[in-house]
Amino acid sequence: MGIKRIIFNQQGNVRTVFKLLAFVLLFQLIGILLLRTTVPLIQNSPFHLSYGVNAISCAAMLLALWVFAKYVDKSSLAKYGLYPGKGTAVQFGIGTIVGLVAIISIIGLQWFNAEVVLDPNSTFKEHDLTWGYMAQLLRYLSGSLFEELLTTSFLFILIFYAIGAKLKLYNHRYLMAIGASAVLFGLVHGFNENATILGVINLLIFGAVTTTNFARTRNLAFAIGFHCFWNFGQNILFGLPNSGKPSEAWIFKTQLHSSDWITGGLFGLEGSLIATFVLGAILIYNLIKLRNSLE
Fold first, then answer.
1. For the chain, how big is the Rg over CA atoms in Å?
2. What is the span of the domain harbouring residue 122?
3. Quick check: is 174 in a domain?
4. Closest Cα to residue 53, out of 26, 34, 81?
5. Residue range 142-157, pLDDT digits in tens
6. 44 forms bridges with which residues in the sheet?
7. How many distinct structural domains can be found in the chain?
8. How far apart are CA 173 and CA 165, in angstroms?
């Protein structure tokens, strides 16, 4: 009885800290199992590794979240923003457009100091260029799904429902959950190569954008589309670094001739002051939409 009272609350639900521990443990176990059984099959191929690790990690995240939702949280993946339907397709489409337009805007606002040359190519010379693009798109789609499930969806839901009506923070639970998700998203990318303080701040704002939309719609599709094609625009469309990672397949080759504060330097556009204003504008719009939906 003592152990049961420690793990479960008065409503019979698993306490938040044990939910977190259960999810982390599930993901670690499933992730290790999948990576150890599949990565040896592709470890000698840089091409397959370029997207394979992301795809396998994403599969582990999805499986862990499904098991967690079904057996620990007594819910479903729909609670975490994953469900089919026309609305989901629309949200993904909107996210895709907003992500691409945002990147094109950041390039456009420094157009007079930019060289953008059509030069379709990839670092994987032994593979057809089309396959190179498809592999990198899969890399970013699976990577976006992985990161958005972890920060935008799981962490938001965990914190939001942990703040009960009896707590003083109850009226601020949206702000607390969005803030925690955004901070985690920004800090995780701070360990990337060539990361900058401004880059981390911009990615914190980025995390707030996706989580604010999720808080309003409870649909993860916008966040996935926005994230995937934000990365696609930088890395594949314009051939620029993405979160410090150089492009491996590109359509245009771009050189930006301004200070690192404007171009983002080796970290990519996410380290640009222009990105701060673009992401800030999108965040303000999403915050207004969220506030209006709560009134």
1. 20
2. 80-294
3. yes
4. 34
5. 999 999 999 999 999 9
6. none
7. 1
8. 10
